[in-house]
Amino acid sequence: MSPSPPAEQARRPPVRFGIMGCASIARKLARAMLLAPSAVVAAVGSRSEAKARAFATDNGLATAAPRLHGSYEALLDDPGVDAVYLPLPTSLHLRWATAAAAKGKHVLLEKPTALCAADLDAILAACDSAGVQFMDATMWMHHPRTAKMRELVADEDSTGDIRVINSLFSFRADEEFLHNDIRVKPDLDALGALGDVGWYCIRAILWAVDYELPKTVFALCNPVRNQAGVLLGCGATLYWADGKIATFNCSFHANLTSDMTIVGTNGTLHVTDLVIPYEEKSAQFSMATKSKFAELHIGWDPLPSKHVLPTDLPQEALMIQEFSRLVQNIRDAGGKPDGKWPAITRKTQIVMDAVKTSIDNEFGPVDISS
Protein backbone atom coordinates (compact mmCIF):
# COMPACT_ATOMS: atom_id res chain seq x y z
CA MET A 1 0.00 0.00 0.00
CA SER A 2 1.12 3.59 -0.45
CA PRO A 3 2.87 4.99 2.61
CA SER A 4 1.07 7.33 4.96
CA PRO A 5 2.55 10.80 5.34
CA PRO A 6 5.45 10.77 7.80
CA ALA A 7 4.42 11.91 11.26
CA GLU A 8 6.56 15.02 10.98
CA GLN A 9 4.89 16.00 7.71
CA ALA A 10 1.44 15.37 9.15
CA ARG A 11 2.17 17.69 12.10
CA ARG A 12 3.15 20.58 9.87
CA PRO A 13 0.54 22.97 8.46
CA PRO A 14 -0.64 21.89 5.01
CA VAL A 15 0.77 23.56 1.93
CA ARG A 16 -1.60 26.22 0.62
CA PHE A 17 -1.93 25.85 -3.14
CA GLY A 18 -3.09 28.41 -5.64
CA ILE A 19 -4.39 27.01 -8.92
CA MET A 20 -3.40 29.36 -11.75
CA GLY A 21 -5.77 28.83 -14.65
CA CYS A 22 -8.80 26.63 -15.10
CA ALA A 23 -7.62 24.25 -17.81
CA SER A 24 -9.31 20.85 -17.97
CA ILE A 25 -6.27 19.08 -16.50
CA ALA A 26 -6.52 21.37 -13.46
CA ARG A 27 -9.69 19.51 -12.47
CA LYS A 28 -7.67 16.36 -11.80
CA LEU A 29 -5.11 18.23 -9.73
CA ALA A 30 -7.80 20.05 -7.76
CA ARG A 31 -9.17 16.64 -6.80
CA ALA A 32 -5.67 15.48 -5.91
CA MET A 33 -5.22 18.45 -3.59
CA LEU A 34 -8.46 17.54 -1.83
CA LEU A 35 -7.21 13.96 -1.36
CA ALA A 36 -3.63 14.72 -0.29
CA PRO A 37 -3.47 15.15 3.52
CA SER A 38 -0.70 17.73 3.34
CA ALA A 39 -2.35 20.15 0.88
CA VAL A 40 -5.24 22.58 0.71
CA VAL A 41 -6.60 24.63 -2.18
CA ALA A 42 -6.25 28.14 -0.81
CA ALA A 43 -7.00 30.10 -3.98
CA VAL A 44 -8.02 29.83 -7.61
CA GLY A 45 -6.95 32.42 -10.15
CA SER A 46 -8.33 32.90 -13.63
CA ARG A 47 -8.76 35.69 -16.14
CA SER A 48 -12.11 36.46 -14.50
CA GLU A 49 -13.44 35.93 -11.02
CA ALA A 50 -16.58 34.38 -12.47
CA LYS A 51 -14.52 31.69 -14.20
CA ALA A 52 -12.57 31.01 -10.99
CA ARG A 53 -15.86 30.71 -9.08
CA ALA A 54 -17.30 28.30 -11.64
CA PHE A 55 -14.16 26.15 -11.45
CA ALA A 56 -14.32 26.01 -7.65
CA THR A 57 -18.01 25.10 -7.72
CA ASP A 58 -17.67 22.47 -10.43
CA ASN A 59 -14.73 20.75 -8.74
CA GLY A 60 -15.98 20.39 -5.19
CA LEU A 61 -13.83 23.14 -3.72
CA ALA A 62 -16.67 24.97 -2.00
CA THR A 63 -15.96 23.36 1.38
CA ALA A 64 -12.33 24.49 1.11
CA ALA A 65 -13.62 28.04 0.47
CA PRO A 66 -10.67 29.09 -1.68
CA ARG A 67 -10.15 32.76 -2.38
CA LEU A 68 -11.17 33.58 -5.93
CA HIS A 69 -9.02 35.89 -8.02
CA GLY A 70 -9.92 37.47 -11.33
CA SER A 71 -6.32 37.73 -12.52
CA TYR A 72 -3.12 35.73 -12.29
CA GLU A 73 -1.37 38.74 -10.75
CA ALA A 74 -3.86 38.79 -7.90
CA LEU A 75 -3.26 35.10 -7.23
CA LEU A 76 0.49 35.69 -6.99
CA ASP A 77 -0.04 38.64 -4.66
CA ASP A 78 -2.09 36.47 -2.28
CA PRO A 79 0.00 36.09 0.92
CA GLY A 80 -1.99 32.98 1.85
CA VAL A 81 -0.60 30.98 -1.09
CA ASP A 82 2.60 28.96 -0.60
CA ALA A 83 2.74 27.24 -3.99
CA VAL A 84 1.14 27.55 -7.39
CA TYR A 85 0.06 24.79 -9.72
CA LEU A 86 0.39 26.16 -13.23
CA PRO A 87 -1.55 24.36 -16.01
CA LEU A 88 -1.53 27.26 -18.48
CA PRO A 89 -0.64 26.80 -22.18
CA THR A 90 3.08 26.21 -22.65
CA SER A 91 3.57 29.57 -24.35
CA LEU A 92 2.65 31.24 -21.02
CA HIS A 93 4.88 29.16 -18.76
CA LEU A 94 7.97 31.36 -18.97
CA ARG A 95 6.09 34.52 -18.00
CA TRP A 96 4.01 33.12 -15.18
CA ALA A 97 6.39 30.55 -13.68
CA THR A 98 9.12 33.15 -13.35
CA ALA A 99 6.60 35.61 -11.93
CA ALA A 100 5.48 33.02 -9.38
CA ALA A 101 9.05 32.36 -8.29
CA ALA A 102 9.72 36.09 -7.99
CA LYS A 103 6.79 36.28 -5.56
CA GLY A 104 8.27 33.47 -3.48
CA LYS A 105 5.77 30.83 -4.60
CA HIS A 106 6.87 27.25 -5.10
CA VAL A 107 6.13 26.05 -8.64
CA LEU A 108 4.41 22.86 -9.76
CA LEU A 109 4.43 23.20 -13.55
CA GLU A 110 2.49 21.21 -16.10
CA LYS A 111 4.32 19.55 -18.90
CA PRO A 112 5.73 20.34 -21.37
CA THR A 113 7.42 22.76 -19.04
CA ALA A 114 8.66 25.15 -21.75
CA LEU A 115 8.86 25.65 -25.48
CA CYS A 116 12.64 25.23 -25.38
CA ALA A 117 15.48 24.60 -22.95
CA ALA A 118 16.44 28.28 -22.88
CA ASP A 119 12.99 29.18 -21.55
CA LEU A 120 13.14 26.38 -19.01
CA ASP A 121 16.56 27.53 -17.86
CA ALA A 122 15.09 30.97 -17.16
CA ILE A 123 12.31 29.39 -15.11
CA LEU A 124 14.73 27.22 -13.15
CA ALA A 125 17.07 30.16 -12.57
CA ALA A 126 14.16 32.18 -11.17
CA CYS A 127 13.21 29.34 -8.83
CA ASP A 128 16.80 28.87 -7.74
CA SER A 129 17.26 32.57 -7.09
CA ALA A 130 14.10 32.70 -4.99
CA GLY A 131 14.88 29.47 -3.12
CA VAL A 132 11.57 27.88 -4.11
CA GLN A 133 10.89 24.28 -5.05
CA PHE A 134 10.30 23.38 -8.70
CA MET A 135 8.68 20.19 -9.93
CA ASP A 136 7.01 19.23 -13.18
CA ALA A 137 3.68 17.42 -13.10
CA THR A 138 4.70 14.06 -14.57
CA MET A 139 2.34 12.09 -12.38
CA TRP A 140 3.37 8.48 -13.01
CA MET A 141 6.75 9.16 -11.43
CA HIS A 142 5.04 9.15 -8.02
CA HIS A 143 3.09 5.90 -8.27
CA PRO A 144 4.39 3.07 -6.02
CA ARG A 145 4.62 0.93 -9.16
CA THR A 146 7.38 3.22 -10.42
CA ALA A 147 9.50 2.59 -7.32
CA LYS A 148 9.06 -1.17 -7.70
CA MET A 149 9.99 -1.03 -11.37
CA ARG A 150 13.10 0.95 -10.50
CA GLU A 151 14.08 -1.73 -8.02
CA LEU A 152 13.95 -4.45 -10.70
CA VAL A 153 15.48 -2.36 -13.50
CA ALA A 154 18.42 -1.54 -11.24
CA ASP A 155 18.92 -5.17 -10.24
CA GLU A 156 21.69 -6.81 -12.24
CA ASP A 157 20.25 -10.30 -11.86
CA SER A 158 16.71 -9.28 -12.85
CA THR A 159 17.47 -6.96 -15.77
CA GLY A 160 21.20 -6.76 -16.39
CA ASP A 161 22.61 -4.11 -18.72
CA ILE A 162 19.88 -2.22 -20.55
CA ARG A 163 20.19 -2.55 -24.31
CA VAL A 164 16.84 -1.52 -25.83
CA ILE A 165 13.96 0.72 -24.70
CA ASN A 166 10.71 1.37 -26.51
CA SER A 167 8.03 3.79 -25.40
CA LEU A 168 4.73 4.74 -26.98
CA PHE A 169 1.94 7.07 -25.97
CA SER A 170 -1.00 7.80 -28.21
CA PHE A 171 -4.69 8.58 -28.14
CA ARG A 172 -7.18 9.11 -30.91
CA ALA A 173 -8.33 12.71 -30.69
CA ASP A 174 -11.76 13.67 -31.97
CA GLU A 175 -12.42 16.43 -34.50
CA GLU A 176 -13.20 18.97 -31.78
CA PHE A 177 -9.78 18.38 -30.22
CA LEU A 178 -7.96 18.43 -33.54
CA HIS A 179 -9.46 21.79 -34.45
CA ASN A 180 -9.80 23.64 -31.16
CA ASP A 181 -7.65 22.19 -28.37
CA ILE A 182 -4.76 24.35 -27.20
CA ARG A 183 -2.40 21.46 -28.00
CA VAL A 184 -2.94 21.99 -31.74
CA LYS A 185 -2.57 25.78 -31.69
CA PRO A 186 0.85 27.16 -32.72
CA ASP A 187 0.48 30.26 -30.51
CA LEU A 188 -0.44 28.26 -27.38
CA ASP A 189 1.26 24.84 -27.44
CA ALA A 190 3.48 24.88 -30.49
CA LEU A 191 5.10 21.53 -29.63
CA GLY A 192 1.83 19.67 -30.21
CA ALA A 193 1.98 15.91 -29.73
CA LEU A 194 5.73 16.01 -29.08
CA GLY A 195 5.24 18.27 -26.08
CA ASP A 196 2.10 16.58 -24.80
CA VAL A 197 2.33 12.80 -25.20
CA GLY A 198 5.94 12.77 -26.41
CA TRP A 199 7.09 14.30 -23.12
CA TYR A 200 5.98 11.14 -21.31
CA CYS A 201 7.77 8.90 -23.79
CA ILE A 202 11.03 10.79 -23.41
CA ARG A 203 10.73 10.82 -19.62
CA ALA A 204 10.12 7.06 -19.61
CA ILE A 205 13.27 6.46 -21.64
CA LEU A 206 15.40 8.72 -19.44
CA TRP A 207 13.93 7.18 -16.30
CA ALA A 208 14.90 3.72 -17.56
CA VAL A 209 18.56 4.69 -17.96
CA ASP A 210 18.69 6.66 -14.68
CA TYR A 211 18.71 9.95 -16.63
CA GLU A 212 21.86 9.36 -18.63
CA LEU A 213 21.51 11.60 -21.66
CA PRO A 214 21.88 9.92 -25.05
CA LYS A 215 24.73 10.84 -27.35
CA THR A 216 22.70 11.30 -30.52
CA VAL A 217 19.06 11.79 -31.45
CA PHE A 218 17.46 11.14 -34.84
CA ALA A 219 13.82 12.09 -35.41
CA LEU A 220 11.82 9.57 -37.42
CA CYS A 221 10.82 10.63 -40.92
CA ASN A 222 7.34 11.70 -41.96
CA PRO A 223 5.88 13.29 -38.83
CA VAL A 224 2.22 14.24 -39.03
CA ARG A 225 1.34 17.94 -38.86
CA ASN A 226 -1.86 19.96 -39.03
CA GLN A 227 -2.40 22.85 -41.42
CA ALA A 228 -0.82 25.23 -38.93
CA GLY A 229 2.32 23.10 -38.83
CA VAL A 230 1.81 21.74 -35.31
CA LEU A 231 2.95 18.15 -34.77
CA LEU A 232 0.14 15.63 -34.41
CA GLY A 233 2.42 12.59 -34.44
CA CYS A 234 6.16 11.95 -34.45
CA GLY A 235 8.92 9.80 -33.06
CA ALA A 236 12.66 9.48 -32.65
CA THR A 237 15.51 7.09 -32.03
CA LEU A 238 18.09 7.80 -29.32
CA TYR A 239 21.62 6.35 -29.20
CA TRP A 240 24.10 6.06 -26.33
CA ALA A 241 27.85 5.66 -26.64
CA ASP A 242 27.75 2.20 -25.03
CA GLY A 243 25.32 0.85 -27.62
CA LYS A 244 22.00 1.36 -25.85
CA ILE A 245 19.19 2.37 -28.18
CA ALA A 246 15.70 3.72 -27.54
CA THR A 247 12.80 4.53 -29.81
CA PHE A 248 9.56 6.35 -29.10
CA ASN A 249 6.39 7.21 -30.98
CA CYS A 250 3.66 9.64 -29.96
CA SER A 251 0.42 10.49 -31.70
CA PHE A 252 -2.98 12.16 -31.51
CA HIS A 253 -4.20 9.82 -34.26
CA ALA A 254 -3.88 6.29 -32.82
CA ASN A 255 -5.75 4.24 -30.24
CA LEU A 256 -5.06 4.97 -26.57
CA THR A 257 -1.78 3.20 -25.81
CA SER A 258 0.80 3.86 -23.11
CA ASP A 259 3.59 1.30 -23.34
CA MET A 260 7.12 1.08 -22.01
CA THR A 261 9.41 -1.87 -22.67
CA ILE A 262 12.91 -2.12 -21.22
CA VAL A 263 15.11 -4.94 -22.51
CA GLY A 264 18.28 -5.84 -20.67
CA THR A 265 20.83 -8.60 -21.02
CA ASN A 266 19.04 -10.65 -18.36
CA GLY A 267 15.44 -9.47 -18.37
CA THR A 268 12.59 -7.55 -19.96
CA LEU A 269 10.17 -5.24 -18.15
CA HIS A 270 6.90 -4.38 -19.85
CA VAL A 271 4.17 -2.00 -18.71
CA THR A 272 1.08 -1.32 -20.83
CA ASP A 273 -0.55 1.56 -18.93
CA LEU A 274 2.40 3.68 -17.84
CA VAL A 275 1.05 7.21 -17.82
CA ILE A 276 -2.42 6.55 -16.42
CA PRO A 277 -2.98 3.07 -14.94
CA TYR A 278 -6.01 1.08 -16.09
CA GLU A 279 -7.35 1.32 -12.54
CA GLU A 280 -6.77 4.09 -10.04
CA LYS A 281 -6.17 1.92 -6.97
CA SER A 282 -3.66 -0.54 -8.40
CA ALA A 283 -1.19 -0.86 -11.26
CA GLN A 284 0.73 -3.76 -12.68
CA PHE A 285 3.65 -4.66 -14.90
CA SER A 286 5.37 -7.84 -16.04
CA MET A 287 8.98 -8.92 -15.72
CA ALA A 288 10.58 -11.70 -17.73
CA THR A 289 14.00 -12.76 -16.44
CA LYS A 290 16.49 -15.16 -18.05
CA SER A 291 13.85 -16.14 -20.58
CA LYS A 292 14.24 -18.99 -23.00
CA PHE A 293 11.99 -21.25 -25.01
CA ALA A 294 10.76 -24.41 -23.41
CA GLU A 295 11.85 -27.73 -24.86
CA LEU A 296 10.59 -28.23 -28.43
CA HIS A 297 9.96 -24.46 -28.55
CA ILE A 298 6.33 -24.87 -27.47
CA GLY A 299 6.33 -22.11 -24.86
CA TRP A 300 8.50 -20.00 -22.59
CA ASP A 301 10.38 -21.05 -19.48
CA PRO A 302 10.22 -19.38 -17.06
CA LEU A 303 7.03 -17.42 -17.65
CA PRO A 304 7.09 -13.67 -16.96
CA SER A 305 6.17 -12.65 -13.42
CA LYS A 306 3.26 -10.29 -12.83
CA HIS A 307 3.62 -7.53 -10.24
CA VAL A 308 0.58 -5.65 -8.89
CA LEU A 309 1.08 -2.53 -6.77
CA PRO A 310 -1.95 -1.19 -4.83
CA THR A 311 -2.21 2.39 -3.65
CA ASP A 312 -4.50 4.20 -1.24
CA LEU A 313 -4.05 7.51 -3.03
CA PRO A 314 -4.07 8.13 -6.79
CA GLN A 315 -0.75 9.03 -8.36
CA GLU A 316 -1.77 12.69 -8.72
CA ALA A 317 -2.37 12.95 -4.97
CA LEU A 318 0.93 11.19 -4.27
CA MET A 319 2.65 13.79 -6.45
CA ILE A 320 0.95 16.59 -4.51
CA GLN A 321 1.97 14.90 -1.27
CA GLU A 322 5.62 14.66 -2.30
CA PHE A 323 5.72 18.22 -3.60
CA SER A 324 4.09 19.39 -0.35
CA ARG A 325 6.69 17.50 1.69
CA LEU A 326 9.46 19.36 -0.13
CA VAL A 327 7.72 22.70 0.34
CA GLN A 328 7.11 22.02 4.04
CA ASN A 329 10.78 21.20 4.48
CA ILE A 330 11.70 24.60 3.07
CA ARG A 331 8.90 26.62 4.67
CA ASP A 332 8.85 25.01 8.10
CA ALA A 333 12.30 23.50 8.64
CA GLY A 334 14.67 25.86 6.86
CA GLY A 335 15.56 23.29 4.22
CA LYS A 336 16.73 23.86 0.67
CA PRO A 337 14.90 22.99 -2.57
CA ASP A 338 15.51 19.47 -3.86
CA GLY A 339 17.57 19.82 -7.04
CA LYS A 340 16.68 16.35 -8.32
CA TRP A 341 13.40 17.43 -9.85
CA PRO A 342 14.67 20.44 -11.83
CA ALA A 343 17.55 18.31 -13.15
CA ILE A 344 15.19 15.58 -14.39
CA THR A 345 12.95 18.16 -16.04
CA ARG A 346 15.87 19.82 -17.79
CA LYS A 347 17.15 16.56 -19.23
CA THR A 348 13.68 15.75 -20.55
CA GLN A 349 13.48 19.18 -22.14
CA ILE A 350 16.95 18.83 -23.70
CA VAL A 351 15.99 15.57 -25.43
CA MET A 352 12.67 17.03 -26.57
CA ASP A 353 14.50 20.02 -28.02
CA ALA A 354 16.85 17.65 -29.84
CA VAL A 355 13.95 15.76 -31.40
CA LYS A 356 12.37 19.03 -32.55
CA THR A 357 15.70 20.21 -33.97
CA SER A 358 16.14 16.94 -35.87
CA ILE A 359 12.63 17.25 -37.32
CA ASP A 360 13.33 20.84 -38.37
CA ASN A 361 16.67 19.81 -39.91
CA GLU A 362 15.23 17.12 -42.20
CA PHE A 363 15.72 14.33 -39.64
CA GLY A 364 19.46 14.68 -39.35
CA PRO A 365 21.42 13.68 -36.24
CA VAL A 366 21.54 15.99 -33.22
CA ASP A 367 24.46 15.48 -30.85
CA ILE A 368 23.48 16.22 -27.26
CA SER A 369 26.12 14.28 -25.35
CA SER A 370 27.84 17.51 -24.37
Automatic annotation (TrEMBL):
It comes from the Eukaryota. Pfam families: GFO_IDH_MocA, GFO_IDH_MocA_C3. InterPro entries: Gfo/Idh/MocA-like_OxRdtase_N, GFO_IDH_MocA-like_dom, NAD(P)-bd_dom_sf. Residues 147-269 form the GFO/IDH/MocA-like oxidoreductase domain. Signal peptide: none annotated. One of its GO terms (molecular function) is nucleotide binding. Residues 15-135 form the Gfo/Idh/MocA-like oxidoreductase N-terminal domain. Belongs to the Gfo/Idh/MocA family. This is Gfo/Idh/MocA-like oxidoreductase N-terminal domain-containing protein. It comes from Leersia perrieri.
